[in-house]
Amino acid sequence: MSTHAKPVAAFDLVIFGGTGDLAMRKLLPALFRRFADEQIPLQSRILGVAREDQADGEYRDRVREALEKAVGGDDALGAKIDDFLELVSYHPLDATSDDGWDDFARELTRIDDHVRVFYLSTSPRIFVDICERLRQHGLNGDGARVVIEKPIGHDLASATEINDAVGAVFAENQIFRIDHYLGKETVQNLLALRFANVLFEPLWNAAHIDHVQITVAETVGVEQRGPYYDTAGALRDMVQNHLLQLLCMVAMEPPASLDSDAVRDEKLKVLHTLKPINAENAAQTTVRGQYRAGAANGGSAPGYLEDLGQPSSDTETFVALKAQVCNWRWAGVPFYLRTGKRMPDRVSEIVIHFRDIPYSIFEAGSGAIRANKLVLRLQPDEGVKLWLMAKYPGPGGLRLQAVPLDMSFAEAFGVQQPDAYERLLLDVVRGNLTLFMRRDEVEAAWRWIDPILAAWENSNNSPRPYAAGTWGPSASVALIERDGRTWHDGDGQ
Ligand code: NAP
């Protein structure tokens, strides 16, 4: 269904890692959908790059297969695949060798008035090689943009190294550090809710908000990503980027405009105000877990070590932690973050728990008055739910009940929600950096994460086991219940 989006100018997009999982499952389907929606001009070029030797035709066949899978049974959309494939070509190239780069550069510079985007959908290990060769061939000029995927490093030192290397070739305003959570409609709607309505902002502070919960739960295990995942773990893979970015969007002060630096300055301030978690307080404020075999996804699921094929590992597949934003607005309001694999549901949501009313005029028999909650659902079924107290209909006395004002974006606007990559890829072409992370944000996030990792490493404790298909170790429940609160349980109030 059309989202009536404005077309962008013709561009060239090079996907380094054009045969990889991310390119086939996310990037190319996202580009195709924007093309089918007439947002991408026919003169644009999409060039897949990887080491594998294959002809354009073979590559297009693989892309066709990936797109057919992505569009499912949508025949109208499927009919546009051939037109899209006209834009697609393939260049075998090893980013770590000089061979073939002259031809590649010649082909690319044949057209000189297109915005040029280099999407580094490869291991970060070769980011430096790719950038250096782009520079050698004069492909890093003003019209060029580079997109880098997470993980941007595995700690502050390695992130700084990557940022230095990419920054030596591209100016900061040419570098798009992608965090696809920021491209989700609900996250952008958080900006709309907070700053396009008068209702929420006066309440958006410690006087009216009791605490905030951010949950990103996956039902899957590590799947084929085991070898990478085991070197990362949930804190690096999810908290350092996605969950902290979501926390920043909730906690930041109103930016003066939607200008990229205005928004990113405010997010950075939040990261700087986070109370450090280190050896002194990590045991009280963090819980890490690792899944064991259990009943999950309607069957039985193996444990992490079996998935990994290793006898032992201290990598966490679950993290819960209590973060504190130390400023006037949020003093004393905990932000509870939780993420894990092999959870009972696939759900990403931000829950704003308001404070209790100061005084009740209702009789004891009217039912408990529950504090209001604003639930921002990122997946599945993006939407917003505001839990309010209302009178249960009919005679029989005034009985109170919590009911949700429920808005599914898909239903409210009658449009299919675009995938985050659709929005973000076209933002890159337009040069709009607002939803991308600036260097100082990434480094500030690592500066907060590194002491947690160090505290865990020095603690001699292993991650706590939890059964697949559960919400993590019981210590995660204890973490929040110690403060007299409970984790939000999906649909319930
Ligand atoms: P992948 O499936 O392993 O694909 C890697 C791609 O890089 C392949 O096309 C590979 O093709 C190419 N490649 C490897 N070495 C190369 C070289 N020396 N020169 C040129 N091309 C080379 O990885 P992926 O899952 O697509 O992930 C790509 C990046 O995105 C990673 O940094 C990952 O962490 C990140 N990411 C992925 C996802 C996801 O959902 N997959 C999500 C978030 C972030 P050849 O071997 O033929 O060269």
From TrEMBL:
Amino acids binding NADP(+): R51, K150
PANTHER family: GLUCOSE-6-PHOSPHATE 1-DEHYDROGENASE (PTHR23429:SF0), GLUCOSE-6-PHOSPHATE 1-DEHYDROGENASE G6PD (PTHR23429)
Protein name in the entry: Glucose-6-phosphate 1-dehydrogenase
Domain Glucose-6-phosphate dehydrogenase NAD-binding: 14-189
Origin: domain of life: Bacteria
InterPro entries: G6P_DH, G6P_DH_AS, G6P_DH_C, G6P_DH_NAD-bd, NAD(P)-bd_dom_sf
BP GO terms, sorted: glucose metabolic process; pentose-phosphate shunt, oxidative branch
Function, as annotated: Catalyzes the oxidation of glucose 6-phosphate to 6-phosphogluconolactone.
Top-level enzyme category: oxidoreductase
Organism this protein belongs to: Oleiagrimonas citrea
